[in-house]
């Protein structure tokens, strides 16, 4: 699966030992309640230096701020989510500065100002761990899908935002995760096991500052 064990591939493998089932119920399921001033349940995973994550006030809203300076670390929330009940992931995000021109399909350019993962654990059969990365790309056009440069087709990248989107501007996202998984992996997958986010600039040695709003799942 991992070849040379790149950082993002290692991130997925670490999740194997980290994800743990947590109940899901109701029409809306909160995963990241940043606006309430808490990071409860989120844990840091460091790979190359530490991206700084902290809650901050921005125009009267409490949000998660991420600052990366040639670093790569992420936050992971273990939570089993039933996609038959709540298939839609919802969040809003913004970036303050674009990364430079990168070949995001190569290992040297696998950096993103902002990304949100959904992860399906393969248990100890680590080769069955899969993920979709919803990314704020720089060079790849909006809507492009490609295999991760480190993890191959076990982790598919999907560009929701790109260089045509404004900095210093909030964008709201809503994705049908169940449908996205079916398109990318050819299976009707009922459960995901974790959600993660990461702002990373380790491969390009760049700098990025981004903000993430609340993350939740909904029935429609």
Question: Can you describe this structure?
Answer:
The chain is mainly β and 220 residues long. The protein has a single domain, classed as Galactose-binding domain-like (Jelly Rolls, Sandwich). It is 9% helix and 47% strand. The protein has 2 helices and 14 strands; from the N terminus they run αβββββββββββαβββ. The strands form 2 sheets. Strands 1, 3, 4, 6, 11, 13 and 14 form a 7-stranded antiparallel beta sheet that branches. A 7-stranded mixed beta sheet has the order 2-5-12-7-8-10-9. The longest helix has 10 residues, at 7-16. It is globular. Residues 16-26 have low confidence and may be disordered.
Q: Main attributes?
A:
220 residues, mainly beta, Jelly Rolls, seven-stranded antiparallel beta sheet, seven-stranded mixed beta sheet, 2 helices, 14 strands, 9% helix, 47% strand
Q: Please compute the radius of gyration using only Cα atoms.
A: 16 Å
- CATH superfamily label: Galactose-binding domain-like
First-residue to last-residue Cα separation: 34 Å
Indicate the CATH topology: Jelly Rolls
Spans of at least 5 consecutive residues with low confidence: 16-26
Q: Strand-and-helix sequence, N→C?
A: HEEEEEEEEEEEHEEE
Total helical elements: 2
Mean pLDDT: 89
Biggest sheet character: 7 strands, antiparallel
CATH class descriptor name: Mainly Beta
Please state the structural category: mainly beta
Overall spatial form: globular
